[in-house]
């Protein structure tokens, strides 16, 4: 039995796997949990991050508005299913006005490290890079230095220091809808200077695992287990009709997370339901957050659907790790 190293979360949103379901990751039967127009001016709500908060949940949500401007908003929920969103995007504070300039913000991740909560997101600064901010209360957010030079996307922090350093995986990219992309690991002594970059894993550019043949990128914050870091990640196939975004999982070494122990050859979830196949960008499932319950091994995965709405899916640490070991690249 694999174990999640973390807190118990008895109120994790959950639904048992349906009888005779062959999937390792199964969808919530009331998906999508968040419709596109639930925020005051939203065109779409997707690729968003949630975390336990007091007796419920809080999150940072990507809401593109009806000018198709991309920004991130705080949302609150009692049950992790029904959410209420603030009317205005997060306003960041900080010492350097240069860092606070806003071009666009999207695809947030959120986590707690030591005494505070961090948000990372894809931050426009003469091209996409990784924005970082911290908060104690989800009211005041202090923006830190961007982690990298442009171009980079999908900056995902680890939930604790590794070998005494903050740690992040990310996906170096280019100006636009990058037609390439591998996952790298970087570390920082202070959340300002990032270095000692290590290659983690790349695309599988052949028939063995075509769902991840074009580009890959880290998804939710890695989950600590007694066998290593469990990282869900998205992978892209370039079809004759455009990109198809699915997701799978990898198990990374606990002390040297650039070393990949296992990695799923089949996807765990691919766009198949109507709300995943039809929307502003068709054929996208894009996970940005999980909730976990260390007592039961349950994992709830929040994922963007077709760049339009938000879905929820479930698995357990045992299900994923066993499947990964039997179906690893
Ligand atoms: C990626 C990011 C994601 C998006 C995906 C599919 O490059 O922009 O936000 O979900 O493309 O459009």
Features:
5% helix; Tachylectin-2, Chain A; 329 residues; mainly beta; single chain; 5-stranded mixed sheet; 5-stranded antiparallel sheet; 22 strands; 3 helices; binds beta-D-mannopyranose
**Main structural class:** mainly beta
Biggest sheet, spatial arrangement of strands: 6-10-9-8-7
Rg is 18 Å
> How helical, in percent, are the residues?
under 10%
Detail the poorly predicted runs.
Answer: none
What's the helix-strand series? EEEEEEHEEEEEEEEEEEEEHEEEH
**Proportion of beta-strand residues:** over 45%
Number of domains: 1
Number of helices: 3
**Biggest sheet features:** 5 strands, mixed
Task: Please count the beta strands (DSSP E, at least 2 residues each).
Answer: 22
- CATH topology category name: Tachylectin-2, Chain A
Instruction: Give the C-level CATH assignment.
Output: Mainly Beta
Query: What is the second-level CATH architecture?
Result: 5 Propeller
Attached small molecules: beta-D-mannopyranose
CATH superfamily: Glycosyl hydrolase domain, family 43
For the residues shown, what is the average pLDDT?
A: 97
Give the overall shape, derived from the CA principal axes. Answer: globular
Précis, in short:
With 329 residues, the protein is mainly beta. It has helices at 97-100, 274-277, 317-326, and strands at residues 26-27, 42-53, 56-65, 70-77, 84-85, 92-93, 105-113, 116-124, 128-135, 141-143, 152-157, 166-172, 183-188, 195-201, 215-218, 223-225, 228-239, 242-252, 260-263, 285-293, 298-305, 309-316.
């Amino acid at each position: 039995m694999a174990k999640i190293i973390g807190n118990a979360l008895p109120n994790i949103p959950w639904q048992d796997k349906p009888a005779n379901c062959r999937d390792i990751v199964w969808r919530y039967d009331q998906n999508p949990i968040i419709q596109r127009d639930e925020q005051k001016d939203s065109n779409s709500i997707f690729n968003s991050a949630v975390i336990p908060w007091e007796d419920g949940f809080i999150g940072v949500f990507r809401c593109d508005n009806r000018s198709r401007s991309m920004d991130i908003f705080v949302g609150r929920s009692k049950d992790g299913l029904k959410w209420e969103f603030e009317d205005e995007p997060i306003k960041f504070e900080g010492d350097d006005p240069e860092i606070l300039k806003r071009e666009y913000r999207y695809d947030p991740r959120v986590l707690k490290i030591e005494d505070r909560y961090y948000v990372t997101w894809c931050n426009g600064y003469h091209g996409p890079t990784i924005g970082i901010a911290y908060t104690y209360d989800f009211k005041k957010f202090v923006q830190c230095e961007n982690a990298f030079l442009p171009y980079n996307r999908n900056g995902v922090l680890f939930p604790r220091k590794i070998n005494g350093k903050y740690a992040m995986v990310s996906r170096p990219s280019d100006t636009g809808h990058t037609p390439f992309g591998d996952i790298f690991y970087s570390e920082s002594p202070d959340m300002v200077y990032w270095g000692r970059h290590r290659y983690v894993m790349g695309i599988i550019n052949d028939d063995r695992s075509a769902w991840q043949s074009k580009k890959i990128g880290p998804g939710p914050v890695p989950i600590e287990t007694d066998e290593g870091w469990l990282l869900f990640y998205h992978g892209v196939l370039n079809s004759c009709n455009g990109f198809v975004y699915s997701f799978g999982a990898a198990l990374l070494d606990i002390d040297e997370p650039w070393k990949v122990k296992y990695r799923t050859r089949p996807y765990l979830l691919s766009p198949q339901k109507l709300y995943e196949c039809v929307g502003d960008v068709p054929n996208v499932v894009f996970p940005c957050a999980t909730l976990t319950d260390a007592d039961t091994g349950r994992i709830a995965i929040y994922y963007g659907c077709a760049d339009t709405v938000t879905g929820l899916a479930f698995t357990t640490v045992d299900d994923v790790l066993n499947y990964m070991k039997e179906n690893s690249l």
